Amino acid sequence: MSTTPPEVMISEDEIRQRVNELAEQISGDYADKGTIVLVGVLKGSFIFLADLSRRLSIPRTIEFIAVSSYGNSSIQSGAVRLVMDVRGNIEGKHVLIVEDIVDTGHTLHYLIGMMASHGPASIKTCALLHKTDSTQIDVPLDYVGFSIRDEWVVGYGLDYAERDRTLPYIGIVHPDDRD
Question: What's the pLDDT tens digit per position in 96-130?
Fold first, then answer.
């Protein structure tokens, strides 16, 4: 197992600045909508969701959903499995799905369908990271923190085998070197 820290891709300061910008944009877009429901996708979005939520200037509630798309592999299969649905009623409410990363688009496509089945007034999406070169399914990305190249990234909620999730920055790892 490597003990070398991940190479920094996006610094803590860059993340903080971009989260502030996203919160300002979202607050402006939802200013006249009443309370919105932020739906965080576990586990990866929890740090991003917490920081984003604290910076919003609009009324909001928080729900969580958990899905699995990788299983025990580092390669996404395209198959998505619901692990935990939202617990609160989101019918007729404005929903913002908050994701850590969108790569192939399969997971977010699935989540949008799942949320739509609950009858919300609207569904928008917010992703901290988007791997533009990995996209297989076009999904609406209303708010994006950073577009990145196709690298395995960790930190700020993202992990590799449950490691490096709490790093304050986004770093690059090479899974073959970390086993």
Answer: 999 999 999 998 998 999 899 999 999 999 999 99
Enter the pTM of the model.
0.89
Q: Is 103 an active-site residue?
A: yes
Name 178's Cβ contacts closer than 8 Å, sequence gap at least 6: 1, 2, 160, 161, 163
Among 139, 144, 141, 133, CA closest to 52: 144
| Residue of 89, 28, 84, 87 whose CA lies nearest to 55 | 28
In whole angstroms, give the CA distance from residue 109 to residue 117.
13
Of 134, 113, 132, 108, which Cα lies nearest the Cα of 45? 108
65 in Cβ contact with 85 (< 8 Å): yes
**Active site residue: 32, 103, 138, 177, which one?**
103
Identify the CA nearest to 129 among candidates 141, 117, 119, 139: 141
pLDDT tens digit sequence for 5-31: 899 999 999 999 999 999 999 999 999
